[in-house]
Specification:
alpha+beta; 3 strands; globular
């Protein structure tokens, strides 16, 4: 899946101790969550959307510590 604000691939990040996550444009959040729901991927979405320097808002979608980042990435990559 491509980030509509940057034109870059949405990528699962693994940095930090909280578990894998993605940063998704707020405008794409419904599309992202539908895709994850369809694939049966458990997740939770941060309550607050963030905008930096007046750029479009983004939201963090979190996955559990035991999630497989590669499997989640394959789900995201399936929607091109």
């Amino acid at each position: 899946m491509t980030d509509t604000t940057t034109g870059q691939r949405l990528e699962v990040s693994k940095d930090g101790g909280a578990g894998p996550y993605i940063v998704a444009p707020e405008a794409q959040l419904d599309e992202v969550t539908r895709l994850l729901d369809k694939a049966g991927v458990p997740y939770w979405v941060d309550e607050e959307a963030i905008s930096i320097d007046g750029k479009p808002e983004f939201t963090v979608v979190n996955f559990g510590l035991d999630s497989d980042p590669r499997a989640i990435q394959r789900v995201l990559d399936s929607a091109r």
